[in-house]
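Hi everyone, sorry if this is the wrong subforum. Our group has a chain we'd like a structural model of before ordering constructs, and none of us has done structure prediction before. Sequence below.
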Amino acid sequence: MNAPTAFPDPKPVPPYKHTPLFPLGADTAPYKKITAEGVRVEQVLGKDMLVVSREALRALSEAAFGDINHYLRPGHLQQLRNILDDAEASDNDKFVAFDFLKNANIAAGGVLPMCQDTGTAIIMGKKGSRVLTDGDDEAALSEGARDAYLRRNLRYSQVAPLSMYEEKNTANNMPAQCEIYAEGDDAYKFMFMAKGGGSANKSFLFQATPSVLTRDRMLAFLKEKVLTLGTAACPPYHLAIVIGGTSAELCMKTVKLASARYLDALPTHGSADGNAFRDLEMEQEILKMTQSLGVGAQFGGKYFCHDVRVIRLPRHGASLPIGLGVSCSADRQVLGKITKDGVYLEELEHNPAQYLPAVEQALGGEVVKIDLNQPMQDILGTLSKHPIKTRLSLTGTMIVARDSAHAKLRERLEKGEPLPEYFKNHPVYYAGPAKTPDGYASGAFGPTTAGRMDSFVDQFQAAGGSMVMVAKGNRAVAVREACKKHGGFYLGSIGGAAANLAEHCIKKVEVVEYPELGMEAIWRIEVEDFPAFIIIDDKGNDFFKELNLG
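Answer:
Right subforum, don't worry. Here is the predicted structure as tokens:
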């Protein structure tokens, strides 16, 4: 063997100067004190060490997930109000923004969460070098999140794989995603996020090539990709774009943090050291591009996005990961910290009423009232008289069914059995409710992303079902073709206003079939003045096709 037995004398190298990849500025968030219990300072080896109890971690996490399902940041609420005050906003932009403000006021009562999809619990902690705990931090933080979901009217959305194809709801919204980093000095800092499935599904990684790194090519690339976001995740969005990254996973993690405005205090220029930075000029360029698309706040207009964050990262010379993601109308994240003075949580807005206009405006244009208790053929006949984009007010009976229920019904058809009569006689609403509070007919009960049920539509309509579908977001070409072939309709409801729907529109809820599916069971609901728009009609017209989303 010719391998050397020892390392040769090392060549001299310059002293190492460390540059943080994410050099963030000062934390300017307003905080409220949760408790002073469970925090003390001890001397260890001559240094003051912050000793944090397990209960302090648990209590902070529970408070965080309670708050973010009911309250929003003042900045987000102000952006909604800005839409109402903007002369360039469409009537539909204003209608959606006003509905979101009403929804925020209902959620702020602390009973109904702002969205029926109360999200995956995501926790990021940065533990200072002079912070001591018992080492069970992930369990304590997860327990706090679990307690918030058990004690409040929040939905359990997590399913555990029992085998490759068999799953079961965990019935407590666990597990949480918990990541703890070593960073800082004498404080323990956190970001808590409740990430719903709709916005999580609008996270995209593109492995591009360095040839895209010119202004015109990059803007053309991003315009094409931004259109693929569609409206299923309840715009207006906080859009995050990350260009570069030392790995694909770092690129996508940066997308998530940027969408939460966690990286707003980054520098606005790069350096030879390779630090991340925000490109403010490109942010404005992309924002103007989103305003020109015509997609608007779900039903056409200017406000596809509230704002845009563009982060540039260093990269391997042969790679160019590009990430896109959004925070939706349920803009749920909050900062927390534990210091020698106690346990603190970012102060969210508890009085969203101040952002409402003084007098309710007539928004969204003329409304057509639809009686859902008439025979299905009469409902179809009434809808057929009106063009796409028509605003509707629905009153009567709807059947609620999502992915798992659709799969059960498809099994019947494939066995040669017919669809149940209730599925033929009533519109189907794609949704899954949160827990029902005492004294309410329903928990938060907003629409699910329609695209998840696209593959069922032609088969179900051919069997006499799904003739009128109600949900959120754009749909595949196959749905448009099925509606034209079978005489069906797809109606778009406002995504992100689940508390408002539960408070004012949903009058009765009962299980019809498959109670073992939990929130995915088939339900019958009675609604009153339930808002919707005609998106796809029986003639093959598709509102989203006009916006290049169909």
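For your construct planning: The mean pLDDT is 94. Residues 50 and 131 are 5 Å apart (CA to CA).
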